[in-house]
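Show me any protein, keeping tokens residue-aligned.
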Amino acid sequence: MLIKINEHIENIQKHSKAFQGIDDLEPLIKEAGKAKYVLLGEATHGTAEFYSLRAEITKKLIQEHGFSFVAVEGDWPSCYEVNKYVKNDSTAANAREVLAHFNRWPTWMWANEEIIPLLDWLKSFNSNKEAGNKAGFYGLDVYSLWESMEAIVHYLQETKSPHVEKALKAIECFEPYNRKAQTYGMSAALLGESCREEILELLQAIQQANSKSGDFNEEEQLSLEINALVSKNAENYYKTMITDDQESWNIRDHHMVEALSHISSFYGSEAKGIIWEHNTHIGDARATTMEQEGLVNVGQITREKYGTENIFSVGFGTYSGTVIAGDKWGAPYEKMTLPKAMRGSWEEMLHRAGSHDKFFIFSQENKTLFEERVGHRAVGVVYHPEYEQYGNYVPSSISERYNSFIYVDKSTALSPLPVEVISD
């Protein structure tokens, strides 16, 4: 094993490049710019450098390579408020004010200091652009069932749609569950008391309203479509997660690709998009043990749907530092110590190859050197550093999972904004 590790370290030293700033990443950005979709990952949801680096890469892709939008692992309604802000169509006074919309746990994923420079840059970039040429910011996730239904009702009321009653009927069906996703899921999965019929009626009403509405602009109609999609898929997700955690994961990732498809259609066939999500979503599941568990993800689905040549995925990792996370779901966030990576893991070998930041572009020349599966760290919003070795490493063929990889040797925690959390 020691000999194999030493071989990996030598290969890392030979094929990685050190970087200190965004200009050093130009070869990676140039290669990424050729793709239709660039998938930017993160090993945690609470590391400052991952956000800052993705922001700088995103600016370059938009300004120099013609990318049209950013789509993130976030709720559509909250992200749509950000989208209006960056397109200069918001009443929010500043980015901090608009980020207060991210008031559902884990708030820090988007309500943080590190994202603000990107939003202000996008706002400035869009200031002299025609409506159809403005770069957007959107959410791909499936969790916002109640918020999306409320947004639908608001839209139908604003357009004086005759289908408002159907929307209100759907919301009324969910009222007994008091916005508690798990309560609804248990009722639907175990007692057979679901709101599926009401949701489907709502979707039919929305399709009719959207085809006839001329009062609102096309982007507001896109928002209606995505909120409807969220309502349908979230109902299925929350119902399924009670009895089949693997299938609920798949529902979520299929939803994110479906939402991405709607956004791309809005921008046109030539549009290019940037996706920000955790490594576990953007790195091809087939290159990990996820495949044996019956799991798919955005990285795999997009490669299959659009062709591998149109997808450029970038994994991110770190050796040690600090991170923002909670010790259980819904708990207040904490600044935690991110321990040194486990012996023999991908991150630990990267550190031993040189304690500096570095990046790879996997090519035909070097791809086979990094195909052997090794442990690769993944930290979620719930984290217990003391038990990391037992559940935070995903065996991965790194060069199959990603097109490139960015490594930060010592990382620091995000800086969360003070946002009041609403209860789920």
